[in-house]
Amino acid sequence: MKSTFLLLSSRLLSAATAGALLGATAFAQAPAAPGSPPAAPAERPKPLGYTDQTYVRNSAKSLFYLIQLANAAKAVTDPNLTRLRDSTAQDLATALKGLTTIAEAHGEKVPTEVAGNDKFDLDRLAKVKPDKFPKEWVEALFKEIKHLHHDTELAATTAQDDDLKSFLTNYSPTINGVFSNAEAADKAAKAPLKK
Protein backbone atom coordinates (compact mmCIF):
# COMPACT_ATOMS: atom_id res chain seq x y z
CA MET A 1 0.00 0.00 0.00
CA LYS A 2 2.88 2.30 0.81
CA SER A 3 4.40 1.74 -2.63
CA THR A 4 1.05 2.44 -4.37
CA PHE A 5 0.71 5.70 -2.44
CA LEU A 6 4.23 6.81 -3.36
CA LEU A 7 3.69 5.86 -6.99
CA LEU A 8 0.41 7.83 -7.21
CA SER A 9 1.80 10.85 -5.39
CA SER A 10 4.90 10.97 -7.58
CA ARG A 11 2.72 10.87 -10.72
CA LEU A 12 0.44 13.61 -9.35
CA LEU A 13 3.42 15.73 -8.41
CA SER A 14 5.01 15.34 -11.83
CA ALA A 15 1.67 16.12 -13.54
CA ALA A 16 1.20 19.22 -11.38
CA THR A 17 4.75 20.37 -12.07
CA ALA A 18 4.32 19.88 -15.81
CA GLY A 19 1.00 21.71 -15.74
CA ALA A 20 2.50 24.61 -13.82
CA LEU A 21 5.41 24.89 -16.23
CA LEU A 22 3.18 24.70 -19.29
CA GLY A 23 0.66 27.08 -17.81
CA ALA A 24 3.29 29.61 -16.90
CA THR A 25 4.78 29.62 -20.36
CA ALA A 26 1.43 29.55 -22.12
CA PHE A 27 0.08 32.57 -20.27
CA ALA A 28 3.27 34.56 -20.06
CA GLN A 29 3.21 37.84 -21.98
CA ALA A 30 6.02 39.02 -24.14
CA PRO A 31 7.89 41.83 -22.48
CA ALA A 32 7.20 45.34 -23.74
CA ALA A 33 9.79 47.00 -25.89
CA PRO A 34 12.16 49.17 -23.88
CA GLY A 35 10.94 52.74 -23.57
CA SER A 36 7.38 52.02 -24.74
CA PRO A 37 4.40 52.68 -22.48
CA PRO A 38 2.47 49.67 -21.24
CA ALA A 39 -0.50 48.66 -23.38
CA ALA A 40 -3.78 50.06 -22.09
CA PRO A 41 -6.83 47.82 -22.06
CA ALA A 42 -9.39 48.64 -24.75
CA GLU A 43 -12.15 50.88 -23.39
CA ARG A 44 -15.74 49.86 -23.92
CA PRO A 45 -17.98 52.68 -25.07
CA LYS A 46 -20.37 54.03 -22.49
CA PRO A 47 -23.84 52.78 -23.42
CA LEU A 48 -26.71 55.19 -23.85
CA GLY A 49 -29.68 55.21 -21.50
CA TYR A 50 -32.77 53.36 -22.68
CA THR A 51 -34.70 56.38 -24.00
CA ASP A 52 -31.61 57.86 -25.66
CA GLN A 53 -30.75 54.49 -27.19
CA THR A 54 -34.30 54.07 -28.49
CA TYR A 55 -34.24 57.52 -30.06
CA VAL A 56 -30.85 56.96 -31.70
CA ARG A 57 -31.87 53.59 -33.16
CA ASN A 58 -35.29 54.69 -34.41
CA SER A 59 -34.09 58.03 -35.74
CA ALA A 60 -31.14 56.53 -37.59
CA LYS A 61 -33.49 54.05 -39.23
CA SER A 62 -35.95 56.81 -40.07
CA LEU A 63 -33.30 59.17 -41.45
CA PHE A 64 -31.84 56.42 -43.62
CA TYR A 65 -35.28 55.53 -44.96
CA LEU A 66 -36.13 59.18 -45.70
CA ILE A 67 -32.89 59.59 -47.64
CA GLN A 68 -33.68 56.47 -49.67
CA LEU A 69 -37.21 57.76 -50.20
CA ALA A 70 -35.85 61.07 -51.50
CA ASN A 71 -33.48 59.21 -53.81
CA ALA A 72 -36.41 57.17 -55.16
CA ALA A 73 -38.05 60.35 -56.49
CA LYS A 74 -35.58 61.08 -59.29
CA ALA A 75 -38.39 61.28 -61.86
CA VAL A 76 -40.27 64.08 -60.09
CA THR A 77 -40.46 67.16 -62.34
CA ASP A 78 -42.52 69.59 -60.25
CA PRO A 79 -40.10 72.33 -59.11
CA ASN A 80 -41.54 72.43 -55.56
CA LEU A 81 -41.21 68.67 -55.18
CA THR A 82 -37.74 68.74 -56.72
CA ARG A 83 -36.63 71.25 -54.08
CA LEU A 84 -38.24 69.12 -51.37
CA ARG A 85 -36.51 66.00 -52.67
CA ASP A 86 -33.10 67.64 -52.89
CA SER A 87 -33.28 69.41 -49.53
CA THR A 88 -34.54 66.24 -47.85
CA ALA A 89 -31.69 64.14 -49.22
CA GLN A 90 -29.01 66.74 -48.43
CA ASP A 91 -30.17 67.93 -45.03
CA LEU A 92 -31.05 64.53 -43.65
CA ALA A 93 -27.81 62.99 -44.91
CA THR A 94 -25.94 65.57 -42.84
CA ALA A 95 -28.14 64.80 -39.82
CA LEU A 96 -27.59 61.05 -40.29
CA LYS A 97 -23.85 61.59 -40.38
CA GLY A 98 -24.00 63.44 -37.05
CA LEU A 99 -26.22 60.78 -35.49
CA THR A 100 -23.94 58.02 -36.79
CA THR A 101 -20.99 59.62 -35.00
CA ILE A 102 -22.92 59.58 -31.73
CA ALA A 103 -24.18 56.04 -32.24
CA GLU A 104 -20.72 54.64 -32.97
CA ALA A 105 -19.23 56.46 -29.98
CA HIS A 106 -21.70 54.60 -27.78
CA GLY A 107 -21.41 51.21 -29.46
CA GLU A 108 -24.67 51.39 -31.43
CA LYS A 109 -25.05 50.20 -35.00
CA VAL A 110 -26.67 52.36 -37.67
CA PRO A 111 -28.68 50.72 -40.46
CA THR A 112 -26.98 50.51 -43.83
CA GLU A 113 -29.91 49.09 -45.76
CA VAL A 114 -33.66 49.44 -45.79
CA ALA A 115 -35.60 46.49 -44.38
CA GLY A 116 -39.08 45.42 -43.40
CA ASN A 117 -42.01 47.76 -44.05
CA ASP A 118 -39.70 50.50 -45.30
CA LYS A 119 -38.39 48.22 -48.04
CA PHE A 120 -41.94 47.18 -48.88
CA ASP A 121 -42.97 50.85 -49.20
CA LEU A 122 -40.02 51.66 -51.47
CA ASP A 123 -40.79 48.65 -53.65
CA ARG A 124 -44.44 49.68 -53.79
CA LEU A 125 -43.52 53.23 -54.81
CA ALA A 126 -41.29 51.89 -57.58
CA LYS A 127 -44.38 50.23 -59.10
CA VAL A 128 -46.69 53.26 -58.88
CA LYS A 129 -47.75 54.80 -62.17
CA PRO A 130 -45.85 58.01 -63.02
CA ASP A 131 -48.96 60.23 -62.86
CA LYS A 132 -49.77 59.03 -59.31
CA PHE A 133 -46.18 58.87 -58.06
CA PRO A 134 -45.80 62.46 -56.76
CA LYS A 135 -48.87 62.23 -54.52
CA GLU A 136 -47.90 58.78 -53.18
CA TRP A 137 -44.30 59.88 -52.65
CA VAL A 138 -45.27 63.03 -50.75
CA GLU A 139 -47.68 61.03 -48.61
CA ALA A 140 -44.99 58.48 -47.68
CA LEU A 141 -42.42 61.21 -47.05
CA PHE A 142 -44.77 63.24 -44.86
CA LYS A 143 -45.82 60.22 -42.83
CA GLU A 144 -42.23 59.30 -41.97
CA ILE A 145 -40.92 62.84 -41.36
CA LYS A 146 -43.94 63.54 -39.13
CA HIS A 147 -43.00 60.54 -36.99
CA LEU A 148 -39.32 61.60 -36.89
CA HIS A 149 -40.27 65.20 -36.06
CA HIS A 150 -42.44 64.04 -33.14
CA ASP A 151 -39.70 61.75 -31.80
CA THR A 152 -37.11 64.54 -32.10
CA GLU A 153 -39.28 67.05 -30.25
CA LEU A 154 -39.84 64.51 -27.48
CA ALA A 155 -36.16 63.57 -27.30
CA ALA A 156 -35.18 67.23 -27.04
CA THR A 157 -36.90 67.34 -23.65
CA THR A 158 -35.86 63.90 -22.35
CA ALA A 159 -32.31 63.34 -23.65
CA GLN A 160 -29.71 62.52 -20.99
CA ASP A 161 -26.52 62.13 -23.03
CA ASP A 162 -24.60 65.37 -23.69
CA ASP A 163 -23.65 64.37 -27.25
CA LEU A 164 -27.27 63.59 -28.07
CA LYS A 165 -28.42 66.89 -26.55
CA SER A 166 -25.93 68.68 -28.77
CA PHE A 167 -27.15 66.75 -31.82
CA LEU A 168 -30.75 67.66 -31.04
CA THR A 169 -29.85 71.32 -30.60
CA ASN A 170 -28.03 71.37 -33.94
CA TYR A 171 -30.35 69.23 -36.08
CA SER A 172 -33.85 69.79 -34.68
CA PRO A 173 -34.24 72.89 -36.89
CA THR A 174 -33.17 70.86 -39.93
CA ILE A 175 -35.68 68.11 -39.21
CA ASN A 176 -38.34 70.74 -38.46
CA GLY A 177 -37.62 72.45 -41.80
CA VAL A 178 -38.01 69.23 -43.77
CA PHE A 179 -41.19 68.51 -41.80
CA SER A 180 -42.65 71.94 -42.62
CA ASN A 181 -41.83 71.58 -46.32
CA ALA A 182 -43.27 68.05 -46.47
CA GLU A 183 -46.40 69.18 -44.64
CA ALA A 184 -46.94 72.00 -47.14
CA ALA A 185 -46.41 69.61 -50.05
CA ASP A 186 -48.83 67.10 -48.52
CA LYS A 187 -51.51 69.76 -48.11
CA ALA A 188 -50.97 70.92 -51.70
CA ALA A 189 -51.18 67.32 -52.98
CA LYS A 190 -54.44 66.68 -51.11
CA ALA A 191 -56.04 70.01 -52.03
CA PRO A 192 -58.86 69.75 -54.58
CA LEU A 193 -57.91 70.81 -58.08
CA LYS A 194 -59.16 74.28 -59.02
CA LYS A 195 -60.99 74.49 -62.32
CATH architecture: Up-down Bundle
**General shape:** elongated
In the CATH hierarchy, what is the superfamily? Ferritin, core subunit, four-helix bundle
* Structural class by secondary-structure content: mainly alpha
The helix fraction, in percent, is over 70%
Domain count: the total is 1
CA radius of gyration is 29 Å
Could you tell me how far the N terminus lies from the C terminus, measured between alpha carbons in angstroms? 115 Å
Average predicted confidence as pLDDT: 83
Q: Could you give the count of β-strands?
A: 0
Low-confidence parts: 5-9, 24-28
What is the string of helix and strand elements? HHHHHH
Q: What is the CATH T-level topology?
A: Ferritin
Could you tell me the strand content as a percent range? under 5%
Number of helices: 6
CATH class descriptor: Mainly Alpha
Major sheet: none
